[in-house]
Amino acid sequence: MRFIRMAVNAVYQALYRKYRPQTFDDVVGQESITSVLKSQLMGGKLSHAYLFTGSRGTGKTTCSKILAKAVNCEHPVDGNPCNCCASCRSIDDGSCTDVLEIDAASNNGVDNVRSLREDAIYAPATVKRRVYIIDEVHMLSMSAFNALLKIIEEPPAHLMFILATTELHKVPATILSRCQRFSFRRITPEDIASRIQYVAYEEGIRIDEDAANILARLADGAMRDGLSLLDQCASSTNEMLTAERVYQCLGIAGAKKAAEMLEAAAQKDTKKALTLLSEQYLEGKDLAALVDELLSLCRDLLVMKIAPHSGKAMLSGICTDEETSRLLPKFTAGELLRLTKLLQETASGFQKSANRRIDVELCLVQMCDPSLNLDPVSLNARLTRIEEDLASGRVRAAAPAEEPAPAAPQADLPEQAEAEKQKASAPIEPEKSDELPVGFWTDLVMRVKPEVSGSTGAYFSLSMDQKMLEPRLSGNRLDILCDDAFVKSQVDDAHTKEVLTQKASALLQRQITVRVLLRSGLDGGKSDPMNRLLQKGKEYPDIFHIREDKR
Q: What is residue 320's predicted lDDT score, i.e. its pLDDT?
């Protein structure tokens, strides 16, 4: 028996269980909640039902157990349990039959709640109040919630309910209205890092500040996750825990590798980016974690690009300030937006992907070569880079090529010279008025309709009411503007243009040429990334080259 007792005592206990807070003062990052609970305990104004909400690892179950001990403690100290009396010890070791912790995920039926309700009417046997802690209460069925309503609304004086959930929206409003609700916020990385260093000191684990900060960031606001990660890393080695060793133990690439890949994307060095990915893959790194790191880094750079001063408080801390400062000038806001959307699409496709390595490789290739994509986001990224380079003076526009001087008339062509002379001396015809006569378009449509196909004639009929076609006269040229490319394709054929030319010339009593054009947007298409790209290509042909075959 002695040997068995020693073996049981030697069983290793996880750090998050061993260092679970035992008083409200020990709870980290939830001072606004613990102070209210302590005030209620000292003032004797306790509620009969509490609802603790928040994400995982923020202290909901811990505060529930502390509250259960505090209401039954024989010698409370400023609202905290003493942890020394018989009631506190029995609750801690789980031998108290009047304080029950129920998992709603496995006891979610109406029969379980009815059994609970039948037992709850009995007075406690060894402590002051009977306490029911129902964890993950949102897992109860609707019938179970209905069975719980009456006893939560009017419980016996000796009864207290503490409900905990991570999904508040699944709890019915009838339950919410009968409870005092406390929302647990995510714990800051600074508080988690401080607690990790304290636990490491108590356990004799050597860890540097950078490693503690990395574990705190990976915990994502959950203290339990941070201590579990510390437990995992400390059990894998007896050496000093550094940032590199943490990355190696957890199988993630690390901020430095992510920064190198992003720098390769900025330099359009596809070979370097793929080489870095291959190294990480061969070392067994998690590709999903690598994409997540790249995504967090792009997000931080985008925040700093848009809000350089106030954005520092919103950074995830994946990279140091020096690395962020080095990468920030190499990207524009449009490029960072493109990379962020590309990484998001890659990460979201992992669940149904057959080969994640190929997905990440294709993502890196597109990150390094934006010309492979012609979607509006990619075009806008390329255009913002050109505009920024031109505005900063890093690139100068090429001077327009000088037009060659007109060749002198050759002396051996006397007939051509005489014709040019007569043409120059001929009288200039006065410019025609650009105003169309009243009723011109209606008359023209009525004359054209019988001589064109049925579908084309229908477009001319609709044009008189819906303005699908609009005529504009410029000298001896009549332009017909269309709002739709399909309508233009129907109207802009040889036969229709011939009929239009004849009828328009007859109405205006002079020879008219007809053109059918597609009308641009309200702003002339200037806001469209493709039009902006084409315009820049025309202005600066030596800087920006447009692939005509891909347009």
A: 66
> In this structure, are residues 465 and 483 in contact, taking their beta carbons and an 8 Å threshold?
no
Domains 15-184 and 189-250 share a fold: no
DSSP 8-state class, residue 431: P
Superfamily of domain 15-184 in the CATH hierarchy: P-loop containing nucleotide triphosphate hydrolases (3.40.50.300)
| Higher local confidence (pLDDT), 310 or 290 | 290
Q: Among the ranges 102-111, 259-268, 478-487, 489-498, which has the highest mean pLDDT value?
A: 259-268
Q: In this predicted model, what pLDDT tens digit does every residue of 6-61 receive, in sequence order?
A: 444 567 888 988 899 999 999 998 999 999 999 999 988 899 999 999 988 899 99
Structure-token pair, residue 538: 């025309």
**pLDDT of 480 higher than 60:** yes
Q: Where are the domains of the chain?
A: 15-184, 189-250, 255-392, 435-518
Query: Options 3.90.190.20, 3.40.228.10, 1.10.8.60, 1.10.260.40; which CATH number does 189-250 get?
Result: 1.10.8.60
pLDDT at residue 429, as a whole number: 42
SS3 label, residue 411: coil
Smallest CA-to-CA distance from 57 within 227, 240, 245, 265 is with: 227
Question: Could you give the CA distance from residue 56 to residue 184 in angstroms, rounded to a whole number?
Answer: 10
Distances (CA, A) of 110 to 113, 130, 135, 140, 200: 5, 21, 16, 8, 45
Predicted local distance difference test score (pLDDT) of residue 442:
81
| CA 303 vs CA 219, 220, 289, 315, 337: distances in Å | 22, 19, 21, 8, 10
- CATH number, span 255-392: 1.20.272.10
Q: Give CA–CA dist 258/252, Å, rounded.
A: 10
Average pLDDT over residues 269-282: 90
List the strands of the sheet with 99-103, edge to edge.
99-103, 130-135, 159-165, 49-54, 180-184
Region class of 251: left (phi > 0), else alpha (psi between -120 and 50), else beta? left
Which CATH superfamily groups domain 435-518?
DnaA, N-terminal domain (3.30.300.180)
* pLDDT per residue as tens digits for the range 191-241: 999 999 999 999 989 999 888 988 888 888 899 999 999 999 988 878 888
Exposure of 171 in the CB half-sphere (CA atoms within 13 A):
24
Write the CA distances from 500 to 232, 246, 254, 497, integer angstroms.
Answer: 82, 78, 70, 5
Helical H segments across 310-398, by residue range: 321-327, 333-348, 356-368, 376-392
Alpha carbon 203 to chain centroid distance?
Answer: 39
Tokens, residue 305: 């690009």
CA–CA distance, 24 with 37 (Å, rounded to integer): 8
CA gap 113, 145 in Å, rounded: 8
> What residues does 470 pair with on adjacent strands?
481
pTM: 0.61
Residues 6+ apart with CB under 8 A from 283: none
